[in-house]
Amino acid sequence: MVNKIPVSVIIMTKNEEKNIRKCLLSVVDFAEVFVVDSGSTDQTQSISEAMGATVVDFQWNGQYPKKKQWCLDYLPFQNDYVLYVDADEEVTAELAAEIKGLFANGAPLNGYFVGFDLVFMNKVLKFGHRMFKLVLLNRHAGHFLDYNDLNASNMWEVEGHYQPQIDGSTGVLKSSMVHYDHDSLFDYFAKHNRYSDWEAVVRSNGAMSNLNESQIWIRTLQKRIFHQLPLKWAVSFLHSYVMKLGFLDGAAGFHYAFARCVYYWQIGIKIKELRYRTEQALGAELEGDLRKVHEGA
Fold first, then answer.
1. In this protein, which residues make up the domain named Glycosyltransferase 2-like (predicted)?
2. d(CA 57, CA 40)
3. CATH classification number, 5-296, choose in 3.30.1330, 3.90.550, 1.10.3470, 3.90.1150
4. Tens digit of pLDDT for each residue in 117-136?
5. What letter does residue 243 receive in the DSSP assignment?
6. I need a surface site. Which of 41, 158, 165, 244 has the fewest CB within 10 A?
7. In a 3-state reduction of DSSP, which class is residue 174?
8. Residue 247 phi/psi, 5° resolution?
9. What does the angle CA 251 – CA 252 – CA 254 come to, to the nearest 5 degrees?
10. Residue 209's CB: how many other CB atoms inside 10 A?
């Protein structure tokens, strides 16, 4: 444990044997690593144990807390700070060194955002949409909000596209993680089909307007503006491909921007479907009430 970074790493898995080895190799400098596994049927658990990680079984009960918050609530941490790393992500040597420096140079802030270098179609995207996530935090000063999303179709056990709420100051680290955005294009589109189900629900019920999560200030402003815009699919393409210079990434940049455009198109038509189903259900309920009144008369 000498010279290890005093941070507990949390890696959430389910059937990640293709990714887990390189992910674990990227966090060897951290003092503690948990692999929180949701019933993998492949070699994820055995690989993780062989590489020295502490494997914890997780079974979601369909309620809150979801998996990230459950980890904060129940894992036997030895450190005050935790770092969330997805199995298809890698902590770069530069990021590990930067995090180590935070603790060597005094008391760190309660939370830090990290930028991600996306690998899409076997190319590291240097332009286009830049993703930041709050993944390093003081576990005593942060929690994930309940987003009223338990009724989202095809929703799963992990919190969706939102950040934890941090009590206190946050910052942005200079170094990046690497995110391999999919195992295959089939996996990529299947994942975003599920995500769009979730986002259609939280945009419809107003939960997406709840900005109590911690966020980089410009992101909060961007979210407020984007939430009000029509034709979000077109705006997202222009944002990634033109405004953020995605065209400089060549064909991969175009396809990524177009895939992001399709994602918001899915959300749009799924919101219309939800509204139609709600209207149909309310109409059927009203018709039933009128029938009861008529029969009672």
1. 8-97
2. 9
3. 3.90.550
4. 999 999 999 999 888 999 99
5. I
6. 41
7. strand
8. -65, -20
9. 65
10. 12
Structure confidence at residue 183 (pLDDT): 73
Q: What is the pTM of this model?
A: 0.88
Among 122-126, 273-277, 289-293, which range has the highest average pLDDT? 122-126
Only one residue has tokens 């980890």, namely: 71
Kindly give the pairing relationship between strand 111-120 and strand 123-124: antiparallel
Q: Is 235 helix (H, G, I), strand (E, B) or coil?
A: helix
Long-range contacts of the stretch 115-119 (C-beta < 8 A, 24+): 115/172, 115/173, 115/176, 115/177, 116/89, 116/176, 116/177, 116/178, 116/179, 117/176, 117/177, 117/178, 117/179, 118/179, 118/181, 118/256, 119/178, 119/179, 119/180, 119/181
The encoded tokens of residue 118 equal 């996306």
* 178: helix, strand or coil: strand
3-state secondary structure 78-89: CCCEEEECCCCE
Q: Report d(CA 250, CA 196) in Å as an integer.
A: 26
Question: 59 vs 40, 255, 269, CA distance in Å?
Answer: 11, 36, 32
Q: pLDDT tens digit string along 199-244? A: 888 888 876 666 566 666 556 666 666 667 789 999 999 999 999 9
Q: Tell me whether residue 189 is exposed, middle or buried, using C-beta atoms within 10 angstroms of its C-beta: 0 to 12, 13 to 18, 19 or more.
A: middle
